[in-house]
Write a structure and sequence with these properties.
This protein has 173 residues and is α/β, with parallel strands linked by helices. It has six helices and five strands. Helices cover 33% and strands 20% of the residues. It has a five-stranded mixed sheet with strand order 3-2-1-4-5.
Length: 173
């Protein structure tokens, strides 16, 4: 900022950085009093949405398990929110978009008539969830809801899954 009547060189040197007389200074309380509060969003909060729609929500994500031979396996996990029932949709060392899409088809077949009650699928923005994957669920009238960027909704569940997998089975593939 260049203050009229004060040289650029003196400001660059760190001199005369105090406001000139007549420049009003506002306290944080005065600024907050002038600013309007942020408008409320229309519609329910995320927590309210989950509570009301729990019976109609599936969530899908990847977890990984490191084997005894130091290989990493990826587990495609699907959770029914109302029952907290976990489906292991598939396990592979190299997940691809085509593989994930086939696991989605298999899941809907396994759910059978129960698939009709689900209306929402929550997933992250992983590139393995392709348009073909989304089409499998939209064809079953299930709306895809992507989590916000850098949102860790399943971190606690992934940790539990890893501990259980490590404690219950020694994977050697």
């Amino acid at each position: 900022m260049i203050v009229p009547g004060r040289g650029v060189m003196s400001i660059a040197a760190g001199q005369n950085l105090r406001p000139t007389s007549g420049t009003p200074q506002a306290t944080p309380q005065e600024i907050r009093a002038v600013l309007a509060p942020a408008p409320r969003r229309s519609g329910p909060t995320w927590r309210q949405f989950l509570a009301v729609q729990a019976h109609a929500i599936l969530a899908i994500d990847f977890a990984h398990v490191d084997t005894v031979l130091l290989r990493r396996l990826y587990i495609l996990v699907v959770i029914e929110h109302d029952r907290r029932r976990v489906h292991l949709a598939g396990i592979t060392a190299h997940p691809t978009g085509a593989w994930v899409t086939q696991q989605a088809r298999n899941l809907l077949m396994d759910l059978g008539e129960r698939a009709d009650r689900f209306r929402f699928l929550i997933r992250d923005r992983d590139s393995k969830f392709t348009a073909a994957f989304d089409a499998v669920f939209t064809g079953a009238d299930i709306r895809i809801t992507r989590t916000p960027v850098r949102s860790p909704p399943g971190e606690r569940n992934r940790g539990t899954l890893r501990r259980d997998a490590a404690g219950n089975a020694s994977t050697t593939s």
